[in-house]
Amino acid sequence: MIIDKNYEGLIECDGIFKLEGDLITEESLEIKINLIATGDIKAGGTIKAEGYIESGWSIEAGSYIKSGGYIKAGGYIKTKGYIEAGEYIESFGIKTIKLIRISHLPYVVFVFDTHIKIGCELHSKEKWKNFGDKEILAMGGKKALKFWNENKEWLLRM
To answer: Which residues have CB under 8 Å from 135's CB, separation 6+?
Structure first.
């Protein structure tokens, strides 16, 4: 699916195109404009954008996401491949150059330049490094403590 300035439903203002609601396709998505969608952006294949892409909630791709500008989601960014932005990536309110999503663990983990999100817990790497056993137990019980003790060294190095 190709999204350009002629795509039905777009509202243009000073070269920025806004789409109210979701943009969902089972195909790959090629975006030839600077696009802001108020809902989700989801593609079964790749998402390629010449400019920036911004979503009110999530951005999901069955393959990879690549943008010439920034990639910004109000919530999460999910892909089975890589995420590459010409400027920056922003997810959960955190701007980053690097965003890694790890989903083969007991918790879904997002690793940013300066933060780590494990399950629903989002903290700076510095805070994660300094959490004691009591704090981890309070977050998620014995399962969380076991997970953190087994994975903290390599997660903090990322």
So the answer is: none
